[in-house]
Amino acid sequence: MSQCAYCSQRKGKRPCPALGGQICSQCCGEHRIVRVTCPTDCAYLETGSDYQQKRLAVQFMPVRRDFYRELGELGGEKAVALFNLVEVVIFGYFQGRRDGQDAEIVAALQGLRRTLSPLHVPAAPSPVFAEHLKKEYDAFKKQNPQQIADMSDAPEILDRAIAFVSQFSGTDFQSQRFLGGLIGYVRAYHPDIAQHLTKQREPGHIILPGQQFMPPPAPEQHTHDPGCQHHH
User: What's the pLDDT tens digit per position in 41-99?
Assistant: First the structure.
């Protein structure tokens, strides 16, 4: 059995059309799309991406829940609504792409923070997704001016969001960990919302899922008594 065409250390166990040889499953999982230019018809591409997203979704769920709790304590419903909108826009924009990177998310959040800062901070032209996020924020703010954080408190909320995304993403310059976690989470735990956002194409008219997209509360303890329908 030949060596892996990428790392040259482990045994190659699956054909890699991009490298023209055999690749080990570890390198295939870690480097597909990011460092290996995979053709769209590769048999391992979709199944591998789905597996990675499902695995990351499990890791993402508890840290996301903790972050939403932090946002609620910091700025209440308006703070929660701002990051909820950010997540919705990210999912809608990146769910059909394999080349997105967490650095694009961080850059967009930084760009939105600059535009919502009371101080004018000159900046270079914004990347494509940063412009898209700003347009969606402006559209939602115009339609729902009392429901989302604005210049008075948005900068601090976005600072927390940047730190959250960066921490989950890790240190890899080309990381897709946050994107994989978020997209996998929405698909696994909110399939109806995932389907809705996949079909929704018209820019500037995002429907914020609201409480449906929030982490679910812990179930309450149920006590059986004579008036309970479960009582026999």
Answer: 787 876 666 778 888 898 999 999 999 999 999 999 999 999 999 999 999 999 888 78
Cα–Cα distance measured from residue 112 to residue 126, given in angstroms and rounded to the nearest whole number: 10
Give long-range contacts, CB 8 A cutoff, 24+ apart: 93-97: 93/129, 93/132, 94/179, 94/183, 95/183, 95/186, 95/187, 95/194, 95/197, 95/198, 96/198
Q: Which two tokens stand for residue 202?
A: 């018209």
The structure's pTM equals: 0.72
Name the residue ranges covered by the structural domains of the chain: 1-43, 48-213
Q: Which letter does DSSP use for residue 118 in this model? A: S
